[in-house]
């Protein structure tokens, strides 16, 4: 699907066709026909678009050497997106996001999966800038991706803190599966953010910017946000590793406590069974001829159980 966008009063407005006012072509899950159309219309290398179809594509920059855009240039970043893991819990994955600069001053973005940050971008006013629209959009989209990582990291931190609160009573594996999904998300984030950081650092010396110094303040903000995400991911990954080990130990300990209580209860319940078995034998027994025999047997059994329960509690076995 191709969405043609133009800017009116600092807002992105969708149109049905590509016109002279179109500044951004947002392409999502392109068909073979749409890929061939874009390649033919804008003289693009086909791999600029088809590379995004591979979810494992790495971040990269092509066409950086040009002083002016005589050929299309590509900046490929990785963005985060929430999915459902095989274990059935929320997991954060990363997918490639292609930003293509055409020779006629337009920007083409290509994704093969949903992108939450794009929905927000479409409704957010485009920041006013003296930079050309291509440079404005490439910095704006890079900023949106960087802030998106930090938003998702906050969600992962909340999930981790919630799981920590469930440690005291946990004896099941569900929390372990959730912790595993958080750990996988952070591993994906660490790899993607570091790859994005390498590409964004290339923009410092990019010749395609008309005024290299004009974009530096915004690029600095993007790099600060990305480095913050990288640092948070690194710290959180270490914490999750430690919490995961602690979590396994606590779950095992909680299970041992349950087994200890059940074993102690079994010992207590064995006492009436033994006494009942003895007095149930068809032989001559003490108190057999007394009318209140059952009462005294009950008293002795109850007293014995109470004594055993107190002893077990003193030794923290019950």
TrEMBL record:
It holds the Pfam family CorA. It comes from Enterococcus silesiacus. Keywords: Membrane, Transmembrane, Transmembrane helix. One of its GO terms (molecular function) is metal ion transmembrane transporter activity. The chain crosses the membrane at residues 261-281, 293-312. Belongs to the CorA metal ion transporter (MIT) (TC 1.A.35) family. The keyword Cell wall biogenesis/degradation does not apply. One of its GO terms (cellular component) is membrane. It comes from the Bacteria. Its main location: membrane. It is a multi-pass membrane protein. This is Magnesium transporter CorA. InterPro entries: CorA-like (IPR047199), CorA_cytoplasmic_dom (IPR045861), CorA_TM1_TM2 (IPR045863), MgTranspt_CorA/ZnTranspt_ZntB (IPR002523). It is found in: Membrane. Gene3D superfamilies: CorA soluble domain-like, Magnesium transport protein CorA, transmembrane region.
